């Protein structure tokens, strides 16, 4: 049978007629890709060693528009022929895997992702397939968490966030976060860890891990008010410690009667004068002692404000230049990061296991490191960290 020969106008008319059908574009793609692969095999066999020949086809699915393409991959007897288009399809598959993980990391459920991939690509990915995709990328996230660190970070923020996680049953578990300011004044998440509860003993393990990965020195730790965390840090690093002033205020107000709260708030603001450029630790201690004299008969727990040693952990920020005090007297920076974690996790009532939480938190941290935290902190210069 002679080969049918059509001119350009006839070919265009045939293509127009085919693509006008509901699934015509996908049919055209199938025919074009299959024909290209078949022609590539013919050219390959003509240039190949003698004894090799065509050996049928194998069926695979490719990405179409709204539905999958049915493709026929040509084979040769020796198994050496690999169509160039396979690399393109492999890249598509990798891209789909990355898309699934990005969507999952942004908070979509596996069911949401299944629906999106079916609608856009015509590629039906089951819940188990999507779960396997996310698991396959967990190794990269683990490498991120275990990567070597710089030897020096000017400031390190430490905090824990809690996520409902399933072990034998679902419960809120602690995920420990370390956020560092780098010498170039950008920020970077340098540690993500898990333990069932927050404790100073596990923070000890965190310190050991940071050191084993290369961290040797920091000038300042900014932490919450967890008992004995300060002594844990001092055991591992020669660094100043700033405890969160906002956490202190909340803990005091939680034990104050409602009718006294406004007055106590005013007095606490009088102690911690963040807008006072000329403030010193001595002046702060004097004000604190005056406030204690006013309230201690009603609230004995406020007596500790008059203890110079205890209060020193909350006034370390006064050893720093005025321009950076607002960013180091609280753990607000790392709490903002925790809010980003919560946004990713909030759609899910609970996570199936610890590794899934660590993987998602790592992905959020990588995104923050590569975008938000790449911008240097304004007005913050290494030369004037300390007075």
From TrEMBL:
Keywords: DNA recombination, DNA-binding, Transposable element, Transposition. It holds the Pfam family Transposase_mut. The keyword Nucleotide-binding does not apply. One of its GO terms (molecular function) is transposase activity. One of its GO terms (biological process) is DNA transposition. It comes from the Bacteria. The keyword Lipid metabolism does not apply. Belongs to the transposase mutator family. Required for the transposition of the insertion element. This is Mutator family transposase.
């Amino acid at each position: 049978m002679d080969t049918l020969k059509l001119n350009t106008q006839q070919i265009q008319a045939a293509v127009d007629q085919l693509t006008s059908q509901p699934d015509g574009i996908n049919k055209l793609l199938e025919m074009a890709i299959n024909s290209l692969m078949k022609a590539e095999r013919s050219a390959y066999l003509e240039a190949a060693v003698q004894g090799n020949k065509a050996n049928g086809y194998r069926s695979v699915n490719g990405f179409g528009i709204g539905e999958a393409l049915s493709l026929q991959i040509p084979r040769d007897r020796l198994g050496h022929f690999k169509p160039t288009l396979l690399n393109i399809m492999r890249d598509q598959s990798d891209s789909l895997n990355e898309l699934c993980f990005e969507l999952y990391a942004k908070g979509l459920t596996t069911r949401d992702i299944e629906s999106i991939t079916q609608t856009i690509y015509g590629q039906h990915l089951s819940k188990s397939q999507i779960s396997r995709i996310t698991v396959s990328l967990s190794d990269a996230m683990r490498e991120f968490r275990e990567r070597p660190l710089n030897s020096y970070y000017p400031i390190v923020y430490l905090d824990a966030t809690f996520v409902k996680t399933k072990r034998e049953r679902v419960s809120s578990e602690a995920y420990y976060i370390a956020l560092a300011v780098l010498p170039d004044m950008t920020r970077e998440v340098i540690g993500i860890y898990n333990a069932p509860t927050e404790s100073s003993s596990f923070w000890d393990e965190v310190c050991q891990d940071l050191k084993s990965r290369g961290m040797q020195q920091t000038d300042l730790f900014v932490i919450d008010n967890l008992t004995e965390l300060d002594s844990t840090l001092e055991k591992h690093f020669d660094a100043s410690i700033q405890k969160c002033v906002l956490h202190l205020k909340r803990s005091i107000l939680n034990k104050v009667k409602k009718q006294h709260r406004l007055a106590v708030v005013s007095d606490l603001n009088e102690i911690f004068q963040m807008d006072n450029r000329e403030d010193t630790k001595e002046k702060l201690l004097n004000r604190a002692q005056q406030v204690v004299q006013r309230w201690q008969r009603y609230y004995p727990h406020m007596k500790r404000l008059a203890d110079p040693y205890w209060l020193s952990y909350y006034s370390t920020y006064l050893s720093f230049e005025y321009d950076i005090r607002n960013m180091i007297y609280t753990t607000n920076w790392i709490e903002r990061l925790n809010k980003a974690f919560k946004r990713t996790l909030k759609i899910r009532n609970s996570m199936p296991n610890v590794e899934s939480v660590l993987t998602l938190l790592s992905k959020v941290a990588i995104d923050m490191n590569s975008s938000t935290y790449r911008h240097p902190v304004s007005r913050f210069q290494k030369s004037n960290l300390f007075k």
